[in-house]
Amino acid sequence: MVWLRRLAWGVGILVVLAVAVVAYLLATFDPNRYKDVLIDKVRTDYQRTLVLQGPISLGLWPSLHVKLSQVRLSEHQREQAFASAEGLELSVQALPLLQRQLRVNRVQAHGVSLRYARDAQGRSNIDDLLKPDDEPQPEDDQPGEPVAFEVAGIALKDVALDVDDRKTGVQGKVVLQSFDSGRLADGLQTDIQLKAQAVLSKPSPASIGVRGSLSLTPQLAQNTVLVDKLALDVEGDALGARQVKAALKADALRWDGAKGAAQAQGLSIDGGAQLTGLLVENARLSLERFEYDPSAQSLQLYKLATKVAARQGGQPLNAELNWSELVVKGDEIRGSTLEGNVSLVGPTAVDATFKSDAPSGGFQRFKVPALALDFTVRMAGEGGTREIKGRTQADLDVQAPAREVALQGFTLQATVQEPSLPELQIQAAGQAAVQGEVEGKTGGLASWSLKGQLNANPFDTKGTARMGTGVPKVQAVASFTSLDLNRLLPAPAASAKPGAVAQPASSAGAGPAQVAKSASSPSSGDAPVDLSALSLLDGRFELSAGQLAVRQYRISDARLLATLEQGRLTLQNLSGGAWGGRFQAQGNAQAGANQKLALRGTAESVDINALLKDVAGKDVLEGRGQLKWDVVTGGRTVPQFTSGLDGTASLLLRDGAVKGINLAKSLRDAKARLGALSGGGGKSDEVQRSSQVEKTDFTELSASFQIKGGVARNKDLSAKSPFLRLGGEGSVDLVRQRVDYTVNTTVTGTVKGQGGAEIDALKGLTVPVKLAGPFNALDWKIQWSGVAVGSLQNTLKGRLEDELKAKLLGKPAVPAASGASAPKSSREEQLKNKLRGLFK
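User: That's the sequence. What structure does it adopt?
Assistant: Structure tokens below.
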């Protein structure tokens, strides 16, 4: 027994020595000495640069824990930052590792920033980190039991991920503001609370916040994840919708990664949003149960219901869809009909119902036949109520393995009835399909083809839309023999008619600075200009129409070619016949924070009166000729677009008239006006209110404009008539809706029978005529006070010329009307002789 006692003492001494050695190592070990070794290891194995600015804290017993601060890791073979963190901490229990168990006490991180980038070919900046080890494994190596894991808790704060995925077209930043979990272990349910924010610039601007909770149960051996009591609240702006508020709830969710199977119970989404022209007050989608298992060829859906309560233009809009049951197992299928309705009340009223027959087929392919929509649309207008009534029908064909959904045998039959107009018959037939992403192609593909007639006028349209690559990428072509959109669109509001623009109250008596300030600061009365819809898709669009009617515009041989890319609309060609001539235009529009619009074009041989009536609702000018323009503007409201208008414009007209005043008639009163001035009585100047029954004819008129800040300035007005020459300069202020113009009228001759003798005193004189006032109340002011002096000078000049001729010719001048004049040659000879005498 002595040797046993000695052995025990020896073991005890060894244990004490071992503990002492471990304690000494723990007390004296400095992990910071090995920073360079770790940095070199990362550089050698991964071709990345690791920066450890803060100290390393390392503990070995009773738990392995490491704490880092100010950490930075570069991209592969580049110095650009891939990941950085202000602080990281990991603690792992030591003894369970000997039993192939990973028990993590805690995981903490804050101030973490990550970057994910992938090009269009699918190569990402983490491929080198995911690459398997190239070292060969021994052939007799047998996999052991999987390592069991357990984490006491995870606490993350301010973890940011920058995303630049060129393959899917997603760019932006996702911030996990907070993430807290309880105990995480295989087969153990734990509660999780999270809060996150996503701000995307592509595929379309979006800012979404998410917060909520869930219970998570990982089942690693089955490659399955269970989620219970899911509750997420979503708020923000996305996909053209603003002020989105939604609540996502689910009693239970299950994902089986090995089978690719999914299950959901008690799923519901409630919320609202504001869209362009539509306010969704309350929308709800609910699903009692859903199961999808491709390995068992099973698809089950129970009590799918959608209900929407919204307002369009202040009028209530309601919609419902219900599908009670769909069960597909192998080649067997049973299910109920698909039913729903849509209603809108107001000046434009809609009443529509849709319903299908029971589904047929199996898991590989099933149909929902005879899906029909019956609709009636009533539009109130000044001439009475327009009614559009019709029916569409198609078979919904679903091929699950091919991931394709198609509308087959689509037909449309509709009539448009309107008082005092012939009935419009619409017939169309075609098909459409949507195919999910397939191998070798990115994103899903939608396509359509439709042909029909509007009365006896054929039309056809076809196109494709690529989805799942950011925003949809659309290619669309449409051709119409004759298209009258006024028969299909609601009548415009009274305030939207051309020329029905009221003068802003704030501009009365205000200076330019005040008006510019009010124009650049949106108020509640400012009409917004929202181009955000341009960011919802990319594509190329082509339209042609032999005859096109849109509101007040009537266009023949209309052509449109435009492209959309990243929120920028490029109008490559807009052309057609209108106003008795032809026009062609190009331009662009840019959505985003800095909205812009540019348009340039030429109109040839057009009737300027018809053009101005259609575009501006003004009847101020007649004639036919050429109009050119090249303008740019931008802003968020109509006043900002007006005050931001810059560019140039010019016009050249022939055989027309300026409406509002008859200058020839007004100048025939010159004798009376000038007599009143010379006698000291009467008003010096004459003010005439612009009148549509008066006009000044011209044979030719030209002018060019420089436009800056919404004000068009002209300095080269030129117009000609048989006895007048017009020149002038001035401005047209679109911001204040005022005109300030001076027309200099020169009398060049008389016309017999039209009071020509009354304006002899004005011959060769320039008569200033002032045009000023708001657009809807222009005044013409003939400034006779400026003419009187010139008239007197003309009279004196004439008398002096007569006296000079009398002295030089040796006899009084005889008016031409009193007798025959002397022969021209003899009179010239006498004048020469007299002039020679003056200089002797």
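The two ends are 168 Å apart (CA to CA).
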